[in-house]
Write a structure and sequence with these properties.
Blueprint lengths: L1 E5 L6 H15 L3 E5 L3 H14 L3 E4 L3 H5 L1 H10 L4 E3 L2 H5 L4 E5 L1 H16 L15 E6 H7 L5 H6 L2 E3 L1
Parallel strand pairs: 1-2, 1-3, 3-4, 4-5, 6-7
Antiparallel strand pairs: 5-6
Length: about 160
């Protein structure tokens, strides 16, 4: 059973939840979803995940979760729940693993766009940019604490392995 934490105030949460549910059904997994948009709701969601005895946890990408990164990592550690995050910053701060867009590249594109706008281009004329580079980051220290190991082929494909 996999736990999924989403911020219901995020307009993308409904479609992200649907996509995760479709993927889970394809893999024969059960998803337990919880909503949270503040610190207290995050605590309550983790308590619910513990009651459901989820085997792993993942998140929909959201700035609320980024701003509560330390709390989320601490809760995952306290409850010994293997957790997959959407940004490498979580893994660098002690989370188990992350798979998501390269934030440095996103900031670079933001700077390029700002420069183009300042030079007179209209924002409506600029194309939408999608992440083309994603990073897999694995924290072996956290894995060891959880009693987990990763297959060598997966470690070999990771963009970064924290030892």
């Amino acid at each position: 059973m996999i736990g999924l934490l989403v911020n219901p105030k995020n307009p993308a949460s409904e479609s992200e939840t649907h996509d995760v549910q479709v993927a889970a059904r394809t893999l024969g997994l059960k998803i337990v979803g919880q909503n949270a948009s503040n610190s207290h709701e995050i605590e309550a969601a983790f308590a619910s995940f513990v009651q459901y005895r989820v085997n792993a946890l993942t998140f929909a990408a959201d700035s609320v979760f980024s701003s509560h990164r330390d709390q989320i990592i601490a809760l995952a550690a306290r409850h010994a729940v293997p957790t997959m995050y959407f940004a490498r910053e979580f893994t660098a701060a002690g989370g188990l693993m992350s798979y998501g867009g390269d934030i440095t590249n996103a900031y670079r594109l933001t700077g390029i766009y700002a420069g183009r706008i300042l030079k007179g281009e209209k924002p409506n004329d600029l194309p939408v940019q999608l992440a083309v580079k994603v990073e897999l980051v694995i924290n072996l220290k956290t894995a060891k604490t959880l009693g987990l190991t990763f297959p060598l082929p997966l470690l070999g494909r990771a963009d970064e392995v924290i030892e």
